[in-house]
Amino acid sequence: MPLRLRNDIGQNHYTTGNLQPSQIKTSAPSDRNFSKIQEFKVATTNDNCEVAEFSQVLFLACKPYQIEGVANQIKSKISTEKHLVVSCAASLPMESCESYFPAGTRMIRIIPNMACSVGQGGVVLVQGSHATREDVETVKSIFTGVESALKYRIG
Predict the structure, then answer these.
(1) What gap in Å lies between CA 72 and CA 134, rounded to an integer?
(2) What percent of the chain has pLDDT over 70?
(3) Could you say which architecture CATH assigns to the domain 3-153?
């Protein structure tokens, strides 16, 4: 995840208590990206596959041009039954995101605004073609403390 969004999500979970630090693992290409997130006492790694094996909900918060590469790293670890993939990549259409993963992968795209970093603002949720209502509720619960969330269904 990019440092800013990783910190915002970590801060939200830390202050709302809807997840324990032991339930969160994050990855980044180098350890220098972990200095702020480690204050939340979550597990860190440089291995995206390790995060995929650990997680049920995978947040892909990287630049749009990096999504395909990250997907190629982890797609062999993705189980359509176990994993929900949440993309935070700006300006990348849902169809493109879904095309990088195995057929049937449950996916949601989120577009948070900057006010989310202080527990205000909103998040737009775009439900992928295989995501369920329960998946949408899971993602909404992650953003507990954000003023509002809007769901928009594609397809």
Answers:
(1) 26
(2) 75
(3) 3-Layer(aba) Sandwich (3.40)
